[in-house]
Design brief:
alpha/beta, Rossmann fold, about 15% strand, about 250 residues, about 40% helix, 10 helices, 7 strands, seven-stranded mixed beta sheet
Protein backbone atom coordinates (compact mmCIF):
# COMPACT_ATOMS: atom_id res chain seq x y z
CA UNK A 1 0.00 0.00 0.00
CA UNK A 2 1.18 3.50 -0.85
CA UNK A 3 1.86 5.29 2.45
CA UNK A 4 0.12 8.41 1.13
CA UNK A 5 -3.14 6.44 0.86
CA UNK A 6 -3.28 5.26 4.47
CA UNK A 7 -6.12 6.50 6.64
CA UNK A 8 -7.84 5.73 9.94
CA UNK A 9 -11.42 6.51 10.91
CA UNK A 10 -12.18 6.50 14.64
CA UNK A 11 -15.86 6.03 15.55
CA UNK A 12 -16.92 6.69 19.15
CA UNK A 13 -19.90 7.77 21.22
CA UNK A 14 -18.74 10.80 23.24
CA UNK A 15 -16.15 13.57 23.24
CA UNK A 16 -13.11 12.19 25.15
CA UNK A 17 -13.65 8.55 24.05
CA UNK A 18 -11.11 9.07 21.26
CA UNK A 19 -8.55 10.53 23.65
CA UNK A 20 -8.55 8.01 26.46
CA UNK A 21 -8.55 5.05 24.04
CA UNK A 22 -6.53 6.13 21.02
CA UNK A 23 -4.69 9.43 21.54
CA UNK A 24 -1.24 7.90 21.31
CA UNK A 25 -2.22 5.92 18.23
CA UNK A 26 -3.49 9.09 16.58
CA UNK A 27 -0.29 10.96 17.42
CA UNK A 28 1.88 8.19 16.04
CA UNK A 29 0.12 7.91 12.72
CA UNK A 30 -0.43 11.64 12.30
CA UNK A 31 3.35 11.99 12.57
CA UNK A 32 3.65 9.45 9.72
CA UNK A 33 1.30 11.46 7.53
CA UNK A 34 -1.70 9.15 7.85
CA UNK A 35 -5.06 10.82 7.26
CA UNK A 36 -7.12 10.72 10.48
CA UNK A 37 -10.86 11.30 10.84
CA UNK A 38 -13.23 10.97 13.79
CA UNK A 39 -16.95 10.34 14.15
CA UNK A 40 -18.51 11.30 17.48
CA UNK A 41 -22.13 10.21 17.90
CA UNK A 42 -23.08 12.65 20.69
CA UNK A 43 -21.79 15.80 22.33
CA UNK A 44 -21.70 14.27 25.81
CA UNK A 45 -24.50 16.49 27.11
CA UNK A 46 -25.35 14.07 29.94
CA UNK A 47 -21.83 14.24 31.33
CA UNK A 48 -20.29 16.30 34.10
CA UNK A 49 -19.74 20.06 33.90
CA UNK A 50 -16.42 19.92 35.75
CA UNK A 51 -15.38 20.05 39.40
CA UNK A 52 -15.77 22.91 40.07
CA UNK A 53 -18.20 23.46 37.16
CA UNK A 54 -16.82 25.32 34.15
CA UNK A 55 -20.22 25.72 32.48
CA UNK A 56 -23.93 25.10 32.95
CA UNK A 57 -25.64 21.88 31.88
CA UNK A 58 -27.24 23.79 29.00
CA UNK A 59 -23.84 25.00 27.84
CA UNK A 60 -22.20 21.60 28.18
CA UNK A 61 -22.74 20.27 24.61
CA UNK A 62 -21.03 23.29 23.05
CA UNK A 63 -18.28 23.25 25.66
CA UNK A 64 -17.57 19.57 25.13
CA UNK A 65 -17.49 20.02 21.37
CA UNK A 66 -14.88 22.72 21.90
CA UNK A 67 -12.89 20.43 24.18
CA UNK A 68 -13.02 17.70 21.54
CA UNK A 69 -11.83 20.03 18.82
CA UNK A 70 -8.88 21.11 20.97
CA UNK A 71 -7.96 17.51 21.84
CA UNK A 72 -8.24 16.46 18.19
CA UNK A 73 -5.90 19.28 17.20
CA UNK A 74 -3.35 18.14 19.78
CA UNK A 75 -3.33 14.51 18.63
CA UNK A 76 -3.51 15.19 14.90
CA UNK A 77 -7.08 14.26 13.95
CA UNK A 78 -7.93 16.61 11.11
CA UNK A 79 -11.52 15.69 10.27
CA UNK A 80 -14.46 15.66 12.69
CA UNK A 81 -17.97 14.38 12.03
CA UNK A 82 -20.86 14.61 14.51
CA UNK A 83 -23.96 12.42 14.30
CA UNK A 84 -25.95 14.75 16.60
CA UNK A 85 -27.57 12.09 18.78
CA UNK A 86 -28.25 12.67 22.47
CA UNK A 87 -25.92 11.34 25.13
CA UNK A 88 -27.30 8.22 26.85
CA UNK A 89 -29.95 7.86 24.12
CA UNK A 90 -27.85 6.21 21.43
CA UNK A 91 -29.37 2.80 22.10
CA UNK A 92 -32.75 4.21 21.05
CA UNK A 93 -31.50 5.78 17.81
CA UNK A 94 -33.09 4.44 14.59
CA UNK A 95 -30.84 1.63 13.39
CA UNK A 96 -31.14 2.31 9.67
CA UNK A 97 -30.66 6.04 10.17
CA UNK A 98 -27.41 5.58 12.09
CA UNK A 99 -26.18 2.90 9.70
CA UNK A 100 -26.84 5.13 6.70
CA UNK A 101 -25.03 8.07 8.30
CA UNK A 102 -21.98 5.96 9.11
CA UNK A 103 -21.94 4.32 5.68
CA UNK A 104 -21.96 7.75 4.08
CA UNK A 105 -18.98 8.87 6.17
CA UNK A 106 -17.06 5.63 5.57
CA UNK A 107 -17.56 5.96 1.82
CA UNK A 108 -16.54 9.61 1.95
CA UNK A 109 -13.41 9.13 4.06
CA UNK A 110 -12.59 5.71 2.52
CA UNK A 111 -10.46 4.62 5.50
CA UNK A 112 -7.96 1.80 5.47
CA UNK A 113 -8.71 1.05 9.13
CA UNK A 114 -11.74 1.73 11.33
CA UNK A 115 -11.36 1.77 15.13
CA UNK A 116 -14.21 1.63 17.63
CA UNK A 117 -15.14 0.08 20.98
CA UNK A 118 -15.26 -3.66 21.49
CA UNK A 119 -18.75 -5.27 21.64
CA UNK A 120 -18.86 -4.81 25.42
CA UNK A 121 -18.24 -1.10 25.04
CA UNK A 122 -14.94 -1.22 26.94
CA UNK A 123 -16.75 -0.57 30.25
CA UNK A 124 -20.30 -1.78 29.47
CA UNK A 125 -21.54 1.76 28.79
CA UNK A 126 -24.76 1.38 26.71
CA UNK A 127 -23.74 4.14 24.27
CA UNK A 128 -20.34 2.49 23.78
CA UNK A 129 -21.96 -0.87 23.09
CA UNK A 130 -24.39 0.74 20.65
CA UNK A 131 -21.74 2.57 18.64
CA UNK A 132 -19.66 -0.62 18.43
CA UNK A 133 -22.63 -2.49 16.97
CA UNK A 134 -23.54 0.34 14.61
CA UNK A 135 -19.94 0.57 13.40
CA UNK A 136 -19.62 -3.15 12.68
CA UNK A 137 -22.87 -3.06 10.71
CA UNK A 138 -21.82 0.05 8.79
CA UNK A 139 -18.39 -1.30 7.86
CA UNK A 140 -20.03 -4.37 6.32
CA UNK A 141 -22.73 -2.32 4.58
CA UNK A 142 -20.26 0.23 3.20
CA UNK A 143 -18.51 -2.53 1.26
CA UNK A 144 -21.73 -3.67 -0.42
CA UNK A 145 -22.96 -1.44 -3.26
CA UNK A 146 -26.51 -2.72 -2.77
CA UNK A 147 -26.71 -0.96 0.60
CA UNK A 148 -27.49 2.76 0.51
CA UNK A 149 -26.43 3.43 -3.10
CA UNK A 150 -27.24 7.10 -2.54
CA UNK A 151 -24.47 7.24 0.11
CA UNK A 152 -21.58 7.00 -2.35
CA UNK A 153 -19.47 4.33 -4.00
CA UNK A 154 -18.87 1.14 -2.02
CA UNK A 155 -15.70 0.98 0.05
CA UNK A 156 -14.14 -2.05 1.73
CA UNK A 157 -12.30 -1.33 4.98
CA UNK A 158 -9.12 -3.37 5.34
CA UNK A 159 -9.29 -3.74 9.12
CA UNK A 160 -11.86 -3.12 11.81
CA UNK A 161 -10.21 -2.87 15.22
CA UNK A 162 -11.65 -2.76 18.72
CA UNK A 163 -10.13 -0.97 21.68
CA UNK A 164 -9.85 -3.62 24.39
CA UNK A 165 -11.04 -3.69 28.01
CA UNK A 166 -7.66 -5.02 29.12
CA UNK A 167 -5.72 -2.82 31.55
CA UNK A 168 -2.64 -1.74 29.67
CA UNK A 169 -0.32 -2.45 32.59
CA UNK A 170 -1.70 -5.99 32.85
CA UNK A 171 -1.06 -6.63 29.16
CA UNK A 172 2.45 -5.19 29.43
CA UNK A 173 3.29 -7.67 32.20
CA UNK A 174 2.36 -10.76 30.18
CA UNK A 175 5.03 -12.99 28.67
CA UNK A 176 2.89 -13.88 25.64
CA UNK A 177 0.27 -11.13 25.35
CA UNK A 178 -1.14 -12.43 22.06
CA UNK A 179 -2.12 -15.75 23.65
CA UNK A 180 -2.69 -14.71 27.25
CA UNK A 181 -4.61 -11.48 26.76
CA UNK A 182 -6.39 -12.13 23.48
CA UNK A 183 -5.05 -8.98 21.83
CA UNK A 184 -3.77 -8.51 18.30
CA UNK A 185 -1.96 -5.15 18.45
CA UNK A 186 0.07 -3.59 21.23
CA UNK A 187 1.30 -0.13 20.30
CA UNK A 188 4.14 1.52 22.17
CA UNK A 189 3.07 5.17 22.25
CA UNK A 190 5.45 6.28 25.00
CA UNK A 191 7.02 8.89 22.71
CA UNK A 192 3.64 10.65 22.56
CA UNK A 193 2.79 10.26 26.25
CA UNK A 194 2.95 13.98 26.95
CA UNK A 195 0.74 14.81 23.97
CA UNK A 196 -1.79 12.26 25.17
CA UNK A 197 -1.75 13.80 28.65
CA UNK A 198 -2.25 17.26 27.14
CA UNK A 199 -5.19 16.03 25.07
CA UNK A 200 -6.76 14.40 28.12
CA UNK A 201 -6.47 17.68 30.02
CA UNK A 202 -8.18 19.47 27.13
CA UNK A 203 -11.39 17.73 28.25
CA UNK A 204 -11.67 20.08 31.24
CA UNK A 205 -15.25 19.20 32.15
CA UNK A 206 -14.31 15.54 32.55
CA UNK A 207 -11.10 16.01 34.54
CA UNK A 208 -12.36 14.41 37.74
CA UNK A 209 -12.95 11.08 35.99
CA UNK A 210 -9.89 11.35 33.78
CA UNK A 211 -7.60 12.03 36.75
CA UNK A 212 -8.85 8.91 38.54
CA UNK A 213 -8.20 6.74 35.49
CA UNK A 214 -4.93 8.17 34.21
CA UNK A 215 -3.13 10.45 36.65
CA UNK A 216 -3.93 9.46 40.24
CA UNK A 217 -2.50 5.94 40.12
CA UNK A 218 1.08 4.71 40.65
CA UNK A 219 1.53 3.25 37.15
CA UNK A 220 0.08 6.13 35.13
CA UNK A 221 3.14 6.30 32.86
CA UNK A 222 2.59 2.70 31.75
CA UNK A 223 -1.08 3.31 31.02
CA UNK A 224 -0.26 6.43 29.00
CA UNK A 225 2.48 4.59 27.07
CA UNK A 226 0.58 1.67 25.57
CA UNK A 227 -2.60 1.21 23.53
CA UNK A 228 -4.10 -2.19 22.82
CA UNK A 229 -6.44 -3.45 20.10
CA UNK A 230 -8.20 -6.59 18.99
CA UNK A 231 -8.89 -7.53 15.40
CA UNK A 232 -12.64 -7.55 14.74
CA UNK A 233 -12.94 -8.06 11.02
CA UNK A 234 -10.56 -8.46 8.13
CA UNK A 235 -11.86 -9.56 4.72
CA UNK A 236 -8.48 -10.92 3.68
CA UNK A 237 -7.69 -12.75 6.95
CA UNK A 238 -4.02 -11.82 6.94
CA UNK A 239 -1.67 -12.80 9.71
CA UNK A 240 -1.60 -10.05 12.33
CA UNK A 241 1.79 -8.94 13.65
CA UNK A 242 2.06 -6.67 16.67
CA UNK A 243 3.23 -3.11 16.76
CA UNK A 244 1.87 -1.53 13.56
CA UNK A 245 -1.80 -1.31 12.61
CA UNK A 246 -0.88 -1.17 8.90
CA UNK A 247 1.49 -4.15 8.86
CA UNK A 248 1.20 -6.27 5.68
CA UNK A 249 -1.34 -3.97 4.04
Amino acid sequence: MNEDERSILFIFAHPDDETFTCAGTACRYAAEGVRLALVTATRGEAGKCGQPPVCSQEELPAVREGELRRAAEIIGIGELHFLDYKDKELTAAPVEEVRRALVRIIREVRPTIVITFDPEGLNLHPDHIAISRFTSDAVAAAADARWFPEAGDAHEVERLLWTTPKRFDEVAALDNPDREAGVDYILDVSYWRQAKAEALRAHRTQQESINKIFFEIPNSEVILSMEVYRQAWNPRSKQLPFGDLFAEL
